[in-house]
Amino acid sequence: MQLTRLRPRAVSHHARLILLLARSKRLSNFSDWVTNELHASVPITNPSIVRTENTWIAGVRVPAYTIDRLGRYRFLADPTLTSTSLLLTLDDNFSTVVESQIDDTPVKRLGVGNDGLEDVRLTYSAASGLQGVWSALDMGQDNRSIKLTADGTFVPSWKNSRNTIVQARISQRKTLTDVRVLRSPLGSQREKNWMPTASGDESWFVYRLHPLEVLCLPPDHDSHTAEPHVVSSDMRLAGWSGSSQLVPWGDGYLCVIHRAAREAKQWPLWRRTVYIHALLELGPDRDVRNISRPFRFDHFGIEFCAGLAMHADRVHFSYGRADRSAHIGSIPVSTLSRLLQTPETQSGGSGPFMLLRRTLERSRVLRRPRPRHSCRDAVRGRSFRLRLVIR
């Protein structure tokens, strides 16, 4: 028996995460799911794919470490958090034909990304060519001197680190050109997971999901002088973050979003970091049209999807697993449509999930979502003991 002191809001948060994990589907269980692992001369992860007129292009990150299920870093060689980026040209079977390292020197000359570019989202159009959006890392002084624990692991401190969004074209020589440093419009120290799309000369991003905010940037426009436009506030998107780029879908757009259940490892019975994903469908005015049921790809742990593409009546997801491998999985468009027809709702669910939800709500463990800026005085300062019986 173990007694754990938890605040009501923490219990509600963890109960909601467990419900999401329980409802998440595993795409690899679909009979028409096809997956391929990407290979390069070095370990790669978190691929982002696009389809050009006649080939596949994948941008991947070369990590210097792996992450275990508790979020601890194990270094492959020298203890460093610096990442490099590769561009892979793939054939129709997703075998690597050409492997090239991306020259990020033009970004470093602008004073950002001194510790590498992370997790690209590629976009392609005939007018704009091949472009990428990265999160440029400056890790801060706390991570300059890395001291390993007795088991050879390291847990970084991101307190003084900085992530800046960078957009650039990728030339045929794999050098970044027309670099734009997109500073945080809200002055945030760490900016990640902007979801871009290629739409003529104008670049626009889904900047935040809750509330849903869109950032539109004309050519040669600095995001310092742009304000995110609030499209809507949907409580179903609370706690979710951006993942893939946006692709055309009907008369609107489709993208993948993700949620990290890393906080759940604070539970005595839950000692694992798990990522789940969902599909977000936006209308032509970028308003929320549909949110799919949450899903995982083929792994119960750390997965991250940075790419989404449509080709030959199939939908292709590119994702990394535990920062140590890169994969592309695909399902038919018809299967994706069925997945979108089972939307995720805050009050939805059936069978045992609905029974569990109602039981938790009656016991006040699972509280209904509150508006983002609502007053929390009613629960502030209160705590209670939750009895967990371990058999």
Care to describe what's here?
There is one protein chain. The protein has 391 residues and is mainly β. It is 10% helix and 41% strand. The chain contains four helices and 27 strands. Strands 18, 19, 20, 21 and 22 form a five-stranded antiparallel β-sheet that branches. A hairpin with a 2-residue loop joins strand 24 and strand 25 (314-321). The N and C termini lie close together (8 Å).
Provide a quick synopsis of the model.
Helices cover 10% and strands 41% of the residues. The protein is mainly beta and 391 residues long. Mean pLDDT is 81; it is low at 1-8, 345-353 and 371-391.
Protein traits:
globular; mainly beta; 5-stranded antiparallel beta sheet; 27 strands
* Extended strand count: 27
User: What is the rounded Rg?
Assistant: 21 Å
Query: Helix count?
Result: 4
- Alpha-carbon distance between the two ends: 8 Å
Biggest pleated sheet: 5 strands, antiparallel
- Which term fits the overall shape? globular
Q: Tell me the β content.
A: 35-45%
Mean pLDDT: 81
Structural category is mainly beta
Task: Please outline the helices and strands.
Blueprint: E1 2-6, H1 8-23, E2 25-26, E3 34-38, E4 45-51, E5 56-62, E6 65-67, E7 73-75, E8 84-90, E9 96-101, H2 105-108, E10 117-125, E11 129-138, E12 162-170, E13 176-182, E14 195-199, E15 202-208, E16 212-217, E17 229-232, E18 241-242, E19 247-249, E20 252-260, E21 275-282, E22 288-291, E23 295-296, E24 303-311, E25 314-321, E26 325-332, H3 333-340, H4 352-362, E27 384-388
Parallel strand pairs: 2-23
Antiparallel strand pairs: 1-27, 3-26, 4-5, 5-8, 6-7, 8-9, 10-11, 11-12, 12-13, 14-15, 15-16, 16-17, 18-20, 19-20, 20-21, 21-22, 24-25, 25-26
